[in-house]
Amino acid sequence: MARRLVRALADLAPAGARRAVAGAMVDLKSLPARLRDPARRAEPWSFVHNVGNGDFQAIGAMLLHNLEDHAGLKPTDQVLDIGCGNGRVAAQLAPVLRPAGGYVGFDISRRGIQACRRQFAREPHMRFQHLDVWNGEYNARGRVAELDTVFPAPDQSIDLAFATSVFTHMRMPAVRRYLSETARVLRQGGRLAFTVFALEPGREASDAFAFQEFDATSAVVDFRYPERAIGHRREALEQAVTEAGLRVAAFLRGYWTPVGEYDGGQDLFVVVKP
Ligand SMILES: C[S@@+](CC[C@H](N)C(=O)[O-])C[C@H]1O[C@@H](n2cnc3c(N)ncnc32)[C@H](O)[C@@H]1O
């Protein structure tokens, strides 16, 4: 009852405040691990930039393993982290990519990027860039339109790009733009791994994600804040991948609905640049 009341009140709060409160709960849960293990004390605080529930290290490690197991991550890769948040995957990648590989992460959250720069100040192969791109959930005052976004990487410079839980906060036209930017920066044979809620007939909502139709390609959990969580039709995503000049290499269902096919909550697409 009390929990439902807190949730109802939180739903009325602006996006930034809601995420900060949720982040403070994540921080509280992380306190025992931080106290036990001095290495974990440097982890970023989620009330500053919240990238989701769960243990920072455990989720980061799971995402890294998925990049290794399903997207062919190699220590020599040049990597682009699209929407790197507060460095959850970067923290796992830094030792793997050293010394031959390189990493660029970008995000629209200034605080997230500041946290990453502090955390990796002594690791020159880990670079971070803030882009002031608009997003209703994460940067409602952003000055650059999503459709004008230019990734901070030269043409054909990247072996592996990934976006974990980022297209789940972007409408379809923005996803198309990000796919075409990815196609620009990937080398021939380069890969992109991205996680989404890929809606399919009979698999269009769950208890945690009560998606409702938003437009022809997408569904949302909250019409007031569409970017809070967005699902896209699987065939629309596949069409967008093809239109960007990329090819779907693998599609694995996550456990946000009961038919999980790999160790990840959201569905995973791996695509290649032919
Ligand atoms: C749920 S968090 C995931 C963060 C990170 N990928 C991870 O797995 O730890 C979503 C992230 O996407 C970022 N984001 C939202 N819209 C974006 C956009 N248009 N371009 C880049 N990043 C974006 C947010 O600022 C936030 O850091």
Task: Please summarize what this structure is.
The protein has 274 residues and is of the alpha/beta class. The protein has helices spanning 2-12, 15-36, 56-71, 88-97, 110-119, 172-185, 234-243, and strands at 78-82, 102-107, 126-130, 158-163, 186-196, 198-199, 212-213, 218-220, 230-233, 247-252, 267-272.
Secondary-structure topology with pairs:
Blueprint: H1 2-12, H2 15-36, H3 56-71, E1 78-82, H4 88-97, E2 102-107, H5 110-119, E3 126-130, E4 158-163, H6 172-185, E5 186-196, E6 198-199, E7 212-213, E8 218-220, E9 230-233, H7 234-243, E10 247-252, E11 267-272
Parallel strand pairs: 1-2, 1-4, 2-3, 4-5, 6-9
Antiparallel strand pairs: 5-11, 7-8, 8-9, 10-11
The protein binds S-adenosylmethionine.
Please tell me about this protein's structure.
The chain has seven helices and eleven strands. The protein has helices spanning 2-12, 15-36, 56-71, 88-97, 110-119, 172-185, 234-243; strands at residues 78-82, 102-107, 126-130, 158-163, 186-196, 198-199, 212-213, 218-220, 230-233, 247-252, 267-272. The strands form two sheets. It has a seven-stranded mixed sheet with strand order 3-2-1-4-5-11-10, sandwiched between helices. It has a four-stranded mixed sheet with strand order 6-9-8-7. Strand 2, helix 5 and strand 3 (126-130) form a beta-alpha-beta unit. Helix 3 (56-71) crosses helix 4 (88-97). The longest helix has 22 residues, at 15-36. Bound molecules: S-adenosylmethionine. S-adenosylmethionine is lined by residues 51-52, 63, 82-85, 88-89, 107-109, 112, 133, 135, 138, 146, 164-166, 169-170.
